[in-house]
Write a structure and sequence with these properties.
InterPro entries: cNMP-bd_dom, cNMP-bd_dom_sf, RmlC-like_jellyroll. Helices cover 65% and strands 0% of the residues. It has six helices and no strands. Helix 1 packs antiparallel against helix 2, helix 2 runs antiparallel to helix 3 and helix 5 packs across helix 6.
Length: 172
């Protein structure tokens, strides 16, 4: 949480110290100014979290209404609630795919490559693979979340995707 604060404070701090050097000449004035900047950035960060929490609350309410309308049995409702809670814990309400989806193609490719290439390179058969093919694979990787006791793959089901399981427990 401190990194976003610092990133927001730093440009403002540089601009103010450049234009009004007198303000930061005394120790007390400089300390008060820095405290003000910290509080300002903390407010922008908290406000962002509050908005995401409210969005989650509305989404949860919509899901409850939908489940009720479609008469889902309680066991399915509980699984859906667990999934949404787990997804929130993992992402804090930030949809990374949405953030990257609308970027220019070259920037999206570079970001996806940064996020995914290390994962792909841990697979021995991909180590010597062509760079363009690796870029295409990185572009198509999507995060997925499964809750405890979910079936990711069942014996006999057709295979239509490649999965990289990052953590979890294996059960038969």
């Amino acid at each position: 949480q401190y990194v976003p604060r610092f990133l927001r404070i730093q440009p403002l701090y540089k601009e103010v110290t450049k234009t009004s050097g007198i303000l930061t000449e005394t120790a007390w004035a400089g300390a008060a100014f820095n405290l003000f900047l910290y509080m300002l950035a903390s407010h922008t960060y908290l406000q962002s979290n509050t908005v995401r929490l409210e969005e989650m609350r509305v989404k949860r309410q919509d899901a409850e209404q939908w489940m009720s309308h479609h008469l889902l049995p309680e066991n399915l409702r509980e699984r859906m609630r667990r999934y949404e809670q787990y997804k929130w814990q993992e992402t804090r309400g930030v949809d990374k795919e949405f953030l990257v989806r609308n970027l220019p193609k070259d920037l999206r490719r570079d970001i996806k490559r940064h996020l995914c290439l290390g994962l792909l390179m841990r697979v021995p058969m991909f180590e010597k693979m062509d760079e363009q093919l690796l870029d295409a694979m990185c572009d198509r990787l999507k995060p997925a979340f499964y809750t405890e006791e979910s079936y990711i793959v069942r014996e006999g089901d057709p295979v239509d995707e490649m999965l990289f399981i990052m953590r979890g427990k294996h059960r038969l």
